[in-house]
Amino acid sequence: MQKINPIIGVLLLLFIFSLAGCGSGTGEDNTPAWKAQHVVFIGLDGWGSYSVEKADMPNVKQLMKEGSYTLQKRTVLPSSSAVNWASMFMGAGPELHGYTTWGSQTPDLPSRELNRNGMFPNIFNLLKEAAPEAEIGAIYEWDGIKYLIDTLSLNYYRNVPNDNKLNTELTRFAVKYVKEKKPTLAAFIYDSPDDVGHADGHDTPGYYAKLKELDDQIGEIINAMKETGMYDNSIIIVTSDHGGIDKGHGGITMMEMETPFIIAGKGIQQGGEFQESMMQFDVAPTIADIFHLGPPQVWVGRSMKQVFY
Q1: 250 and 82 Cβ atoms separated by less than 8 Å
Q2: What is the dihedral angle through the alpha carbons of 180, 181, 186, 189, rounded to the nearest 10 degrees?
Q3: CB 136 within 8 A of CB 185
Q4: How far, CA to CA in Å, does 213 sit from each of 61, 152, 165, 209?
Q5: 19 found inside a domain
Q6: What is the pLDDT at residue 133?
Q7: Are strands 258-265 and 272-273 parallel, antiparallel or unpaired?
Q8: Model pTM above 0.70
Q9: What is the domain-level CATH number for residue 175?
Q10: Which residues pair with 248 in a beta bridge?
Q11: pLDDT tens sequence across 180-207
Q12: Residue pLDDT, tens place only, 167-177
């Protein structure tokens, strides 16, 4: 039997060890080779696309400039809150996930499929199943959100009622959470555009004043991300569940049905406005794409792949 040259043997062993390391799909920091290590999702309830051009929102418009966006993302019907937040998080419409009304707390129709937590498959559970150590959280003003976010898959969640009408409490908790935990996926959802839309009306001075205040709050979250050093390895999404007309919503006018979707950060095209059609249920598959998560068969949404390099 021919002997192997010792030098060749050492080289073969080094080659085998290198293959073992590469096969894990992880980087030098032992984190998954995702498109970005952090996703911060900021939702503005009741923010219609019609308002973007006129709104004084420099932080949001900087994200639009630095990333990709559409102002033609459409709601599912009805154009109201629970059914649309559910569709965003669950990758499907009400016919499948079963949440059909403004205030649905449980499925009004039997969900077509359930995960191990007894909920329709959603982006929070999908990430937690794939990466159990991922820090996942949600902070929200409208209490109805807690029925839609699969709290059993979250490390942290908190309802912060908008008592002072300035949204500073949610921002305070969001900034604290970012600085302390550097979350893998965080959802921060403000309710006040919808409140002002119902009280003062959509497309009114009061409505635009609220959007300006919220832009300041978004700026604080971005600054916190920069202070922690996570900003350069993050993707930020800013979007909405529905718009409105006069003092209401739920109908089929474009002011009610068209909502912004803005995405910026690591690996995102500085492509400006994209023209491909987008629905609410395309949001979850787009986030799943960032984390290389295969969408469940029951999801009907598609990733907006054109926004990625």
Answers
A1: no
A2: -20
A3: yes
A4: 14, 32, 10, 6
A5: no
A6: 98
A7: unpaired
A8: yes
A9: 3.40.720.10
A10: 245
A11: 999 999 999 999 999 999 999 999 999 9
A12: 799 999 999 99
